[in-house]
C-alpha cells in the first residue's frame, strides 16, 4: 500500500517527538518530510544554557543527529523554513522554493522570543536567548566585552546570566517584578534564590522598568524610567516568548493566542494538526516540555489509527536546576488562590518547602534547595489529594539518605516527568540491559534527557539498584491464617476445582479450620460463585437475548440491597432505575414504612431511597412488600444504585440523557456480583454533576460521545477517576462498561476496590483491551446470562455478533 505523505513544519522538540512516536507505532505508515528553520538537526533547546556556560558542546545536546533522519527515511530541509501553506492544493512551499504535497500536515512552529519594543533594541550587541545562533552571539561578545545586562528575571534570564558569568562577564539582571521567577516561586523562596545567586556573583535590579537602550553604533547602556542608568556592552532580552502563528494565520487556520486545537490536536482545517508551543488547547498554551511530549504521543496515536482518549491538558510543573540550585514548582502557588499552606524552612541546609492547600486539597507546591519530594507532591496535586496525605508524608522537609528516598518510592512513581519515565522502568532497564552509568540509563530510558532536573534522582536509583542487584522475593500475602494460599492462588484453585460451594472448596483445599473465618469465608464464597456464574455463561446467544426482556421500571429487582446498621437494624433500598420513581412506587414505599413502623426513609447518596431501621427478623417481609426478590446466588457485593443527573428535556445544560442511560446501565450490571462495593454514575454533561469523577465507573456525556471514567472513589480515600476512553454511542458505552465490570470481577481479589485493581493492572492495558472489539466480545461472553442478553440484543441491532 502506498505510504501517506506526512509533512512536519518545525524541527524542534515537540514535532520530532511526535515523529518518534509515529515511528514506534507504525514505521511504514508515512513518507515523512520535516522542514526546520535552523541549519541543525533536532536538539534539546532546554540545554542551551549548558552550552552557554561552556561545559557542554552542541553535539552533546543533539537529540537526533543527521544519520537518524537517513536511517528512518525522513527528508529534512534544515535551515529552509516553510513560508506558505496551500490548503486547497494540500502542499507547502519553503523559503528556498521547495514544494512538497501532503496528506497530513503537522504545525510545530514553536515560539519566537518576545523582544521588548524599546528604542535602541535594534543596536548591535542586543540579542535574545532562544537558539544556537543567540548562544554563539553571546559567546563571541564575551571575548571582547566585560559588562552584560539580562532583561528578565525568569528561568531563561537567570540561565543566561549564569552562562555569561561563566564566560567571565559582569552581569546585572533587570526584572520588572519585585522578586525573581514569580511564575514558579513564592516570595520567600525567591528571596532565598536571590541570596544564593548573589553569592555566585550576579547583581540584581528589581522592580526596574527599562525605558531605552542607549548607544550610537553599538549598545552602551540602559536607561530606566526612574532616571537611573547603567553602562553595558551586551544586552540579552529574556522576557518570554510568543507562539509562532504567522504561517497558520496567513493560511486561514484558526488562531487565538496560538493555533486552536481539539483533544486530538486537530485544527479547524481537515488533516492539519498543531502540537507544541504553537498550539492552544482548551485555552492553555504550554511552554514546558512534558505537556508538549504528551501532546505528541496523542497526535501520533491518532495519526496511526490507534484509539486514544485524547489530550486532556496538563498540570504545569517545573523540576529545575537554576545555576546549580534545585528548584521544584507545580500547580497553584499564588497566594490569592489558596486557603492554607504547609511551610518548612531549614536555614542550615538552605532548603525550603511549601505545599499549597485549597478547600482541603493539595493544589500546589514549591521546593527550593532539595527537590527530592517533587514527584510525590506532583502526584498529590494531579490526584487532588486530601491535605491529610501531608501528615502521612511527614511534616518535615525531605530528609534521609538517597537510599531511603529510593526505597520509599513505588515502581509506578514518575521520575522523569518530561518523558514520562517511572522508577520501575529505570530499574528494569538497569537490570535487564546491564546498565552501569548515568549516561547509559539516560540513553536507554530517556530519563533526564530533556531538562535534566531529575538527574540526581536517576543517579540515586542507579546507585541503589547496582548495590542491591538481587531483587528481593516479595513476601507472600495469604488470604488469612486459615490457609497458605494467596488470593490469586485461591481464585485459581477454586475456578479450576468446580466445587459446589464454599464449604466443599475449603475442605478440598486443606483449610485449617473447617468453617474458615470471617475473612476467608466470604472470599471463598465469592470465588466459588464467580466460577459457577462463568460456567453458566455458556448459555447460547439466543437464550441470552431472550433473557434480555427486562421488566419495566418499578417491577421486581434481581438483587435487593440490604445493609446492617450500627444499631443492629437494616437499611433496605428498593431499586429505582436511573433514580426515577413513579407515583405508585412512592406510595408503595410510604405504605410499607407505615405498616412496618420503619422510623426513617432517606434519600441515599446515589439518588435512591433507603428505608432505615428495619427489624432484621422482618427483613424478608419488608422486601416482599416492596416487590423485591432475594437472589438465590448472592455471593458477592451487589451494584449500588446508579447515580444520574440531567436530561435535555429538563436540563438546559445537558448534552445527552443521563437518566435513560443510567437506568439501562443499572439493569445491565445489576445481575453481576462484585468483589467489593461498586458505585456507578452517569452525568449529562462534562460538568460531572452525578459524581462521575469519584465513582468506580462513570459515564459522562460529551460532544464526541460518552466519556468513560474508571477508578474514582469517595469512600475512605478520595480518588479522581481516570479517563478510560470515549465511546461514540450509547451501545458502545454500555458494552465497554459491562466488559470493564466483568474484567474487574474476574481478576480482582475479593475486597479489592476498583481503583486498587487499576493500580495493579495499569490503565493502559485496560484501554487497549476494552477498545479492542475481539477482547471486549470475549469479556461480554462471560457476563451473567441476564446481563449478556441485554448486551447482545443491543449489539445485534448494530450487526455485531
Q: What is the rounded distance between the termini?
A: 30 Å
Number of β-strand runs: 36
The total count of helices amounts to 26
Structural class determined from secondary elements: alpha/beta
Low-confidence stretches: 395-399, 539-561, 792-801
* Large-scale geometry: elongated
* Estimated helix fraction: 25-40%
For the largest beta sheet, what order do the strands appear in spatially? 3-2-1-7-19
Strand content: 15-25%
What value does the Rg take, in angstroms? 31 Å
Organism: Paenibacillus aurantiacus
Domain Nitrite/sulphite reductase 4Fe-4S: 653-770
Family: Belongs to the nitrite and sulfite reductase 4Fe-4S domain family.
Cofactor: siroheme; FAD; [4Fe-4S] cluster; [2Fe-2S] cluster
Amino acid at each position: 500500500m502506498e505510504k501517506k505523505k506526512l509533512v512536519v513544519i518545525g524541527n524542534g522538540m515537540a514535532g520530532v517527538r511526535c515523529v518518534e512516536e509515529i515511528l514506534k507505532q507504525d514505521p511504514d505508515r508515512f513518507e515523512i518530510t520535516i522542514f526546520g528553520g535552523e541549519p541543525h538537526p533536532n536538539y534539546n533547546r532546554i540545554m542551551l544554557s549548558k552550552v552557554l556556560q561552556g561545559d557542554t558542546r552542541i553535539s552533546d545536546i543533539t537529540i537526533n543527529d543527521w544519520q537518524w533522519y537517513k536511517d528512518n527515511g525522513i527528508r529534512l530541509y534544515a535551515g529552509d523554513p516553510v513560508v506558505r501553506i496551500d490548503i486547497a492544493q494540500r502542499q507547502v512551499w519553503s523559503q528556498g522554493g521547495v514544494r512538497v504535497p501532503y496528506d497530513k500536515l503537522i504545525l510545530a512552529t514553536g515560539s519566537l522570543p518576545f523582544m521588548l519594543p524599546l528604542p535602541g533594541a535594534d543596536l548591535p550587541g542586543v540579542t535574545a536567548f532562544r537558539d544556537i545562533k543567540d548562544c554563539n552571539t553571546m559567546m563571541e561578545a564575551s571575548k571582547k566585552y566585560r559588562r552584560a545586562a539580562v532583561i528578565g528575571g525568569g528561568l531563561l534570564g537567570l540561565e543566561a546570566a549564569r552562562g555569561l558569568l561563566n564566560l567571565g562577564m559582569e552581569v546585572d539582571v533587570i526584572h520588572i517584578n519585585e522578586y525573581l521567577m514569580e511564575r514558579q516561586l513564592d516570595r520567600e523562596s525567591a528571596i532565598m534564590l536571590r541570596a544564593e545567586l548573589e553569592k555566585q556573583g550576579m547583581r540584581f535590579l528589581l522592580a526596574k522598568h527599562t525605558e531605552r537602550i542607549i548607544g550610537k553604533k553599538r549598545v552602551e547602556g540602559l536607561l530606566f524610567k526612574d532616571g537611573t542608568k547603567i553602562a553595558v556592552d551586551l544586552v540579552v532580552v529574556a522576557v518570554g516568548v510568543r507562539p509562532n502563528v504567522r504561517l497558520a494565520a496567513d493560511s486561514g487556520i484558526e488562531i487565538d493566542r496560538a493555533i486552536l486545537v481539539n483533544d486530538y490536536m486537530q485544527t479547524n482545517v481537515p488533516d492539519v494538526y498543531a502540537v507544541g508551543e504553537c498550539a492552544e488547547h482548551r485555552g492553555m498554551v504550554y511552554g514546558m516540555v512534558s505537556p508538549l511530549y504528551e501532546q505528541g504521543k496523542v497526535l501520533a496515536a491518532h495519526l496511526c489509527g490507534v484509539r486514544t482518549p485524547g489530550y486532556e491538558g496538563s498540570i504545569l510543573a517545573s523540576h529545575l536546576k537554576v545555576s546549580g540550585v534545585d528548584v521544584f514548582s507545580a500547580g497553584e502557588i499564588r497566594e490569592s488562590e489558596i486557603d492554607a499552606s504547609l511551610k518548612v524552612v531549614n536555614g542550615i541546609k538552605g532548603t525550603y518547602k511549601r505545599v499549597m492547600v485549597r478547600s482541603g486539597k493539595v493544589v500546589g507546591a514549591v521546593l527550593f534547595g532539595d527537590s527530592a519530594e517533587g514527584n510525590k507532591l506532583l502526584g498529590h496535586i494531579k490526584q487532588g489529594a486530601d491535605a491529610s496525605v501531608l501528615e502521612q508524608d511527614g511534616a518535615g522537609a525531605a530528609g534521609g539518605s538517597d537510599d531511603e528516598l529510593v526505597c520509599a518510592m513505588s515502581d509506578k512513581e514518575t521520575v522523569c516527568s518530561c518523558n514520562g519515565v517511572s522508577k520501575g522502568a529505570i530499574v528494569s532497564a538497569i537490570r535487564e540491559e546491564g546498565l552501569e552509568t548515568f549516561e547509559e540509563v539516560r540513553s536507554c530510558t530517556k530519563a533526564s534527557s530533556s531538562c535534566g532536573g531529575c538527574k540526581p534522582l536517576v543517579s540515586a536509583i542507579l546507585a541503589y539498584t547496582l548495590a542491591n542487584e538481587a531483587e528481593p522475593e516479595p513476601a507472600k500475602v495469604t488470604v488469612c491464617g486459615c490457609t497458605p494460599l494467596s488470593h490469586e492462588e485461591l481464585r485459581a484453585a477454586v475456578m479450576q476445582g468446580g466445587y459446589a460451594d464454599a464449604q466443599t472448596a475449603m475442605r478440598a483445599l486443606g483449610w485449617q479450620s473447617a468453617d474458615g473465618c470471617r475473612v476467608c469465608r466470604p472470599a471463598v464464597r465469592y470465588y466459588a460463585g464467580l466460577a459457577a456464574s462463568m460456567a453458566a455463561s455458556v448459555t447460547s446467544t439466543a437464550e441470552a437475548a431472550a433473557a434480555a426482556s427486562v421488566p419495566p421500571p418499578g417491577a421486581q429487582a434481581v438483587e435487593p440491597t440490604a445493609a446492617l446498621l450500627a444499631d443492629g437494624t437494616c437499611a433496605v433500598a428498593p431499586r429505582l432505575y436511573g433514580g426515577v420513581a413513579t407515583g405508585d412506587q412512592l406510595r408503595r414505599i410510604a405504605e410499607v414504612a407505615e405498616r412496618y413502623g420503619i422510623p426513617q426513609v432517606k434519600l441515599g447518596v446515589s439518588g435512591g431511597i433507603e428505608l432505615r431501621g428495619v427489624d432484621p427478623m422482618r427483613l424478608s417481609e419488608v422486601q416482599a412488600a416492596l416487590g423485591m426478590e432475594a437472589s438465590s446466588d448472592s455471593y458477592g457485593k451487589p451494584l449500588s444504585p446508579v447515580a444520574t443527573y440531567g436530561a435535555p428535556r429538563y436540563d438546559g445544560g445537558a448534552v445527552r440523557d443521563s437518566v435513560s442511560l443510567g437506568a439501562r446501565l443499572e439493569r445491565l450490571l445489576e445481575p453481576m456480583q462484585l468483589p467489593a462495593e461498586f458505585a456507578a454514575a452517569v452525568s449529562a454533561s462534562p460538568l460531572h454533576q452525578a459524581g462521575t469523577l469519584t465513582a468506580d465507573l462513570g459515564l459522562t456525556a460529551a460532544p464526541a460521545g460518552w466519556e468513560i471514567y474508571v477508578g474514582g472513589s469517595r469512600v475512605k480515600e478520595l480518588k479522581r477517576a481516570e479517563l478510560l476512553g470515549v465511546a461514540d454511542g450509547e451501545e458502545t458505552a454500555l458494552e465497554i462498561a459491562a466488559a470493564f465490570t466483568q474484567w474487574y470481577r474476574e481478576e480482582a481479589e475479593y475486597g479489592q476496590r476498583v481503583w486498587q485493581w487499576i493500580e495493579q493492572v495499569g490503565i493502559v492495558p485496560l484501554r487497549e483491551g476494552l477498545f479492542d472489539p475481539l477482547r471486549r466480545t470475549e469479556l461480554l461472553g462471560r457476563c451473567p446470562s441476564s446481563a449478556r442478553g441485554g448486551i447482545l440484543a443491543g449489539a445485534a441491532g448494530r450487526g455485531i455478533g
